[in-house]
Automatic annotation (TrEMBL):
Pfam families: Calreticulin (PF00262). The chain crosses the membrane at residues 474-495. Residues 504-519 have a biased composition (Polar residues). Residues 540-550 have a biased composition (Basic residues). It is found in: Endoplasmic reticulum membrane. Its main location: endoplasmic reticulum. PROSITE patterns: CALRETICULIN_1, CALRETICULIN_2, CALRETICULIN_REPEAT. The keyword Nucleotide-binding does not apply. Residues 233-258 have a biased composition (Basic and acidic residues). The keyword Chaperone applies. One of its GO terms (cellular component) is endoplasmic reticulum membrane. This is Calnexin homolog. Residues 259-272, 279-290, 297-306, 521-535 have a biased composition (Acidic residues).
Amino acid sequence: MMIESRRKILHLPAAVQCLALLLITSFAFQICVSASDVIYYEPFDESFEGRWVASQKDDYKGVWKHSKSEGHDDYGLLVSEKARKYAIVKELDQVLSLKDGTVVLQFEVRLQDGLECGGAYLKYLQPQEAGWQPKEFDNSSPYSIMFGPDKCGSTNKVHFILKHKNPKSGDYVEHHLKYPPSVPSDKLSHVYSAILRPDNEVSIFIDGEEKKKGNFLSGDDFEPPLIPAKTIPDPDDKKPEDWDERAKIPDPKAVKPDDWDEDAPMEIEDEEAVKPEGWLDDEPEEIDDPDAAKPEDWDDEEDGEWETPKIDNPKCEVAPGCGVWKKPMKRNPAYKGKWHAPLIDNPNYKGIWKPQEIPNPEYFELEKPDFEPIAAIGIEIWTMQDGILFDNILIAGDEKAAESYRLTAWKPKFEAEKEKQKAEEAVAGLSDGLSDFHKMVFDLLYKIGDIPFLDAYKPKIIDLIEKGEKQPNITIGIIVSIVVVILTVFFRILFGGKKPAVNASETNTNASVGTSNNQESSEEKEHEDEKDDDAAAPPARRRPGTRRDQ
């Protein structure tokens, strides 16, 4: 029967074939996936009103809409306006514990108008205080996990942040997954998956491909680490006054040579130089523009005294030069600079002083993270772009169930969008878009940008890649630039120049600490700073012939 149905489908128009196959696949999928594996699923096939509650706080003016994905009949939750704050929440029927078994957090996002500055992440909320109502949802509502794309200025990452309660202090601390993957730069639908496993591992997938794996209890994977250091530098320990940290010192027995002239200049006039024949001594390099005229509406009181603008002297273009000729300078062979005694090993060198280590009073042991349960799913973002479409939000207790949803709900859309994109590029010509070769190159460059030891240079690398995507003809230059960055890192590693290490105790004590009464994400504060960076520059000096306000 299934074979016969497929044969009949082949005789239908292409669009109808795709729809029919999708319906059959979805039907088969519903049979294969056990309902017990799916904890929560939101396809947004119907209006979200009545199930999702938009925040009524004054800050959140953005309007959510139930809208089709561009080019599809599939609906999603749409960010409809630019430069707005948005907040909406859905309470789960039952509170979900993250302490037992595997949990998959998965959702789709399509950045239909791109993303220059904004978030597209979800917050998985803790149970709120008694009396809390969904319409009160805002950035201070405590969450357990924050997961998803975020991009603005130097930030370009798929966040995974765990908010974990310190059992000693009672404070909630934001623990950020280190070296998260970058956000895909196209306008296609992408599916993001975070898999929390009972062996303390977490994996981040984009479109079914694992991009990052970490261990909750590893200090190499989360910043700050969930488990504090056993020891910390003694804050009361002081460096002895006679402690000498100089590895090398000037040789006290060295004497400046008698013929060393410290006053000799670095450069001197070239006495052998001769003025080039044809040099125009009496001609200035710039002359008044003979075609310039004072504007009729020029007001000397408001605009200042009008000056004729200058242009390059055309006579100087055919001559070796204009103006008073001066002999060029050359390096002084007698120049030696200031004399310094040569360095020798310091006999009193004791090494770099460090305070002694003492037991960390904040240290605690942990076999598993003490996850806060999930009681609701919230989207609370500030974005400068509209067109962000959320779809197919899933919480599952089985990786295969999440994979099935990804293959049936997301994959057909993604493939259709890719084909449409290729067709549009073919019509526009490869010169107006990215060829398959360019895409392959830029995909590779994005992976290079995600290499952990290049993390300090990641914003610069991502910026170069995005410029290359907009101007494919400069791809080779982009590759060369990134190679230069990588070589620079290697040379710094080989020959020194590393940044000083951050004090572990300072990191644990000061970074990302907040109580349940102050839950605003540091990433959101960072966005606010970046959006306010475009301050007015000081006015440039006025050029002749221009008004004061130009």
